């Protein structure tokens, strides 16, 4: 018999989102960006030799929340805060004052020290949620890929907020 602390509570995010938008009066379900085949590749080198970047949906604290656009910021020093209030998250039961929980640069630095990862990317990337499949696939994804190439990043950790 499972104890109360070992219970698993799954949340069907996509179904919950569909129901939420229907309750708001939208008649057409949101269409998530997807690929018929997975566009990932096998890393060119082992993780312990790779440069790892972070991509978050949060924005820099000094950014204009109405201008949702891709941006890159130095990974060092690690920012004390990021702009998150414009995003949809449970503001009644959680907060975003714990930056390492959604921008794990400190954790990556520890993994580098432990020899698990080669190095952190010189910049992290802010890619605010756009809610447009076309923008995501035609502009944002190619844009963040170009930034990763400029920074000679081997691997990217996607951290949605």
What's this, in brief?
By secondary structure, the protein is an alpha/beta fold. The chain has helices at 13-23, 105-113, 133-150; strands spanning 51-56, 59-60, 71-74, 82-83, 119-120, 123-126, 155-159.
- What is the number of independent domains? 1
Rg value: 18 Å
- Written as H for each helix and E for each strand, in order along the chain, the element string is HEEEEHEEHE
Label the overall shape. globular
Biggest sheet layout: 5 strands, mixed
| Structural class computed from helices and strand pairing | alpha/beta
β-strand percent reads: 15-25%
Please count the helical segments.
Answer: 3
List unreliable stretches of 5+ residues: none
Task: Give the total of beta strands.
Answer: 7
Query: Terminal Cα separation, in Å?
Result: 34 Å
Residues in helix, %: 10-25%
Q: Could you walk me through the main structural features you see in this protein, from its secondary elements to its overall organization?
A:
The longest helix has 18 residues, at 133-150. The protein has one domain (45-159). The chain has helices at 13-23, 105-113, 133-150; strands at residues 51-56, 59-60, 71-74, 82-83, 119-120, 123-126, 155-159. The mean pLDDT is 83. It is built from three helices and seven strands, in the order H-E-E-E-E-H-E-E-H-E.
